[in-house]
Amino acid sequence: MRTKNTLVLIMMAGLGFAACNNASNTSSAATDSSGNTSANMGANAAGADSNSGATTGKAGDSANAAPSAAPDTADIAFVRKAASGGMLEVQLGNMAVSNGVSPSVKKFGEMMITDHTQANTNLKTIAQQLQINLSDSLLPAHAHHKQMLSAAKGSAFDKAYMKMMVEDHKEDIADFQKASNSKNSMIKNFASETLPVLNKHLDSATAIAGRVKK
Length: 214
Prior knowledge:
Blueprint: H1 2-64, H2 73-99, H3 103-129, H4 140-150, H5 154-179, H6 185-212
Helix pairs in contact: 2-3, 2-4, 2-5, 3-6, 5-6
């Protein structure tokens, strides 16, 4: 009988020990879960702060970017002169095709029509965006150049036209070089991108002028 009671007590003690272990494991699991959750929350919060900082940095960079300066008096004068000069080049180019004798003069006139028509279109777009009013008429100096050539014919036209093209393009290049330093990005880019074309025109005009004056 005593042996039987002893076995019962041992079994009850064993069950109690197992229950304590289960409770301890449950408590540990809860602690680990809580700890992991807290750590993950901390990591996520740090990540959110990092992303927020990156976004703010980009916005700050954009806000700090210097906008293009509004066109000043020199810019406006350049745009209007360049627009008039471009129209003149197209009109004289048409005259060269019609009145010129030398094939090279006629071909040069065709190049003027093509290149300056494109440049004029680009400049008109810029003028509209910058709200610079352009006239459909030539400036007085440009109108005078056209009048000087209107009476010339044949070889006399070739010589006068090519001499004028050399002089005009030298003046244009000087104006465009100044404008390439403009604080207005649109005018600066237009001048910089057009300069190589003007230099090409000057080289061609100089070569042709040397041939037709003989």
